[in-house]
Specification:
Blueprint: H1 2-16, H2 18-35, H3 56-67, E1 76-81, H4 88-104, E2 111-118, E3 133-140, H5 146-158, E4 166-170, H6 172-206, H7 210-236, H8 246-274, H9 278-305, H10 313-344, H11 369-378, H12 381-399, E5 407-408, H13 420-431, E6 440-445, H14 450-461, E7 466-470, E8 491-498, H15 505-525, E9 531-535, H16 537-571, H17 575-602, E10 608-609, H18 612-638, H19 644-671, H20 679-711
Parallel strand pairs: 5-10
Antiparallel strand pairs: 1-3, 1-4, 2-3, 6-8, 6-9, 7-8
Length: 736
């Protein structure tokens, strides 16, 4: 009763102050645009934000830098290649250009050092070609930003003549910036496509012009506020908010606001047709729908905030941004939508609803005997048990794709194939081997004989997945003698070149196998008493994937706990939340399995982008509980005055239309992210849209009603359903 009293009070205040609520939100949106920074003004997240800050590979890299003045790896590479062969003059000019850059740009913001290598030298075992390719590794000062690195690399490449077979600039740093540029250049198209989608879906649903325009107006207000509030809060908390979060904010805002607007408008349309005046209908609907929307919204807010438990700065930046987006969307929806309903009335639904139709409908006009009969049939205990087994089997079958899900860093290979970063990486791999862009460095510390080091180098080269090794055995022209062995003999290093792209799952797998075998290889080489460490992009990628997998357990526990607590409080039960969450987790597993089948098996990708299953899984569990609240809340409400099967038969058909429309709008909102031509975004768009559609049409429409029927009133334990108050005790409720 306390909750009912509070919701009635909230409804009365919100509707009563409608002429204040509307201009207040407009003023807040304008103030955000005029006085706060925007998401688009941020910098792309630096490469360091993609890996664990305490990664062992970083520490090994720092020790290597202290011990050896000449670096062996870089995140920016200039590629020259001619399949018919590079002339000696072209290769000489590449060497001269690198030497000149190293001498003239010894600054903290420019190129500190340039190192050219050629496959004509014959020192790279495993090279696929001979005399066709020159790679120039560019090294920068520690304070050089991502944008400055790529800009300086561009200046360096611009000095290469048209006859010197320049392919382009590549490496993790240029690829990272290119990803940001692709996102930024396609953002307006994503926004436009999503807006048109909502106009069509909501417009057709209500056969009206006002309903989709109201929805988009509310979504625009929510986005304008979030667009300024997120970077402002980030600045106050000294948290970097990457500019790449903006497309996700757009999709999440439009999806959530559309969901909640559909819930409100479906109920409001019915009350108007039943004869309530516009203000009273808005008040009754607000009192009825707001507890459901508020609980659902809090689940999404706290679920996305759980990303803070993750290890990576990437998730710690995205988590609060998405949580703030959900919070703003929720607050705007539960205040601005009711206020607009009370002002506009039946005009929202014109021409689908005309003024002369108001008050002519009866409660029976909103029920479908066919749908209710079908609901009674599927919730009969034998049928319900069959549906539970069938739906669960389908989810488990889809989830079998998890068994071969592979994760990798698709920084370069995830770009469109017509970008210079992709083409340059492909050319480097053809001239040498795919791993040449970022060799893995093995650092040996301690006194060791050259004989033992050469023996280790030979054994390293014989390992599966290794294309070649550079080390103490090589004598490279124009390179200092101590490049591989420190002059005092206290340390040595090897450059291990894998035969797969250094950031893909295959190279990560080869790296882990080598890491496991390394102690035995050192013993066999006679290097007892020394210590070994591995660094490089593949080592960092391996630790990052491990961190994501490790974080998934902690974040998963946090998300499930938050969802369970809020569901238990809303439903006043412990049993139902348990199987509702179990089904949500199974649905996420099925969605990830389908994503693996489509992208790895059907489209031939080597792996999935490492953050996609993690981030999409958190959102899907939270959004799944969002729909749980709506569907099960309707059933619980009908149980106040009906037997269980009849309550399901009445509640589910009445809620199904709103759920279907909301689910389609949300799924398609996320699907629009596939417009961004990056593998990571397309994987995320697929997983989110398919996951939402699974939740909408399989889980919420069939599996959940069947489970409630199978568990019976045990679902409500230890709570009990209370009698519905009489009409003179509380405003007449509505059923959306």
């Amino acid at each position: 009763m306390i909750r009912d009293s509070l919701t009635r009070l909230f409804a009365s205040v919100t509707v009563g102050l409608r002429w204040l609520v509307i201009p207040a939100w407009i003023a807040a949106a304008l103030a955000s645009v005029l006085y706060l920074p925007t998401l688009g003004s941020g910098e792309p997240l630096a490469l360091g934000g993609l890996v664990p800050k305490d990664a062992e590979a970083l520490r090994v890299g720092e020790r290597e830098a202290r011990l050896f003045q000449l670096p062996l790896t870089a995140d920016t590479v200039v590629v020259q290649r001619d399949p018919n062969g590079l002339s000696a003059k072209v290769q000489a000019r590449a060497l001269a250009r690198a030497l000149a850059a190293s001498k003239s740009q010894q600054t903290s913001t420019g190129i500190a050092f340039a190192l050219p290598i050629s496959n004509a030298l014959g020192i790279f075992p495993g090279s696929r070609e001979r005399g066709t390719t020159v790679l120039t590794y560019l090294f920068f000062g520690t304070q050089t930003t991502l944008v400055d690195r790529v800009a300086n690399a561009g200046l360096y490449a611009s000095r290469i003549g048209p006859d010197d077979a320049l392919v382009g600039i590549t490496g993790p740093a240029p690829a990272r910036l290119k990803q940001y540029e692709e996102i930024d250049s396609h953002l307006e198209l994503v926004e436009l496509a999503t807006v048109l989608l909502i106009l069509i879906v909501v417009g057709l649903t209500f056969r009206a012009l006002g309903a989709p325009l109201l929805t988009l107006f509310v979504a625009a207000i929510a986005f304008m506020v979030s667009d300024g509030l997120i970077p402002w809060v980030g600045k106050q908390l000294d948290v970097s908010v990457p500019a790449e979060v903006e497309p996700l904010v757009v999709a999440l805002t439009l999806g959530i606001v559309t969901d909640y607007a559909v819930f409100y408008l479906s109920a409001y349309r019915r009350r108007l047709l039943e004869g309530l005046d516009r203000v009273e209908a808005a008040r009754v609907v607000t009192a009825r729908v707001t507890p459901i929307v508020a609980t659902a919204g809090l689940i999404v807010v706290l679920g996305t905030a759980s990303l803070l438990v993750g290890e990576l700065e990437f998730f710690r930046a995205f988590g609060p941004a998405l949580a703030l987006t959900a919070a703003v969307s929720l607050l705007v929806s539960i205040t601005l939508v009711p206020a607009l309903m009370a002002v506009l009335g039946w005009r929202i639904f014109w021409p689908g609803v005309r003024k002369h139709e108001l008050g002519r409908a009866s409660p029976g006009d909103f029920s479908s005997p066919v749908r209710e009969a079908a609901a009674r049939f599927v919730t009969a205990l034998p049928v319900a048990l069959v549906l539970v087994v069938l739906c669960s089997s389908l989810l488990l079958l889809a989830a079998t794709g998890l068994s071969h899900t592979r994760l990798g860093f698709r920084l370069i290979n995830g770009l469109p194939s017509d970008t210079q970063e992709w083409r340059a990486a492909d050319a480097a791999g053809r001239g040498f081997s795919p791993g040449i862009l970022s060799p893995t460095i093995l650092l040996i510390e301690g006194d060791a004989s050259r004989t033992a080091l050469v023996r280790l180098e030979q054994e390293l080269g014989e390992q599966e997945g290794v294309a070649g090794v550079l080390g103490p055995r090589e004598q490279i022209p124009h390179v200092p003698a101590d490049v591989f062995v420190k002059s005092d003999g206290s340390a040595a290093r090897f450059a291990v070149i894998f035969d797969q792209s250094p950031l893909e799952s295959g190279a990560i797998h080869d790296f882990r196998r080598l890491e496991d075998r390394l102690p035995g290889l050192m013993r066999n080489a006679g290097l007892q008493g020394t210590t070994a460490g591995l660094t490089g992009q593949t080592a960092l990628a391996s630790e990052t994937v491990e961190a994501v997998v490790g974080s998934s357990l902690r974040v998963g526990i946090a998300v499930v706990a938050v969802n369970f607590i809020l569901l238990a409080l809303f439903l006043r039960a412990l049993v139902a939340p348990l199987y509702l969450l179990a089904v949500s987790v199974a649905s996420v597993a099925a969605t990830l399995g389908l994503t693996t089948y489509v992208f790895e098996d059907l489209l031939g990708h080597s792996d999935l982008t490492y953050y996609v299953p993690f981030a999409a899984g958190v959102l899907l569990v939270s959004l799944g509980s969002d729909y749980n609240v709506y569907v099960v809340g309707r059933i619980w409400d009908e149980l106040r005055e009906r037997p269980l099967r009849e309550a399901i038969a009445v509640a589910v058909p009445r809620a199904s239309k709103a759920i279907s429309v909301a689910g389609i709008a949300l799924a398609f909102s996320f699907a629009m992210l596939a417009i961004v031509p990056l593998d990571g975004f397309r994987e995320f768009a697929f997983m989110m849209s398919v996951g939402v559609l699974l939740e909408t049409f399989l889980v919420r429409s069939l599996l959940i009603p069947s489970l409630i029927s199978a568990f019976g009133r045990t679902s409500m334990w230890p709570g009990r359903v209370r009698r519905r108050p009489e009409p003179d005790e509380v405003a007449e409720p509505v059923s959306p």
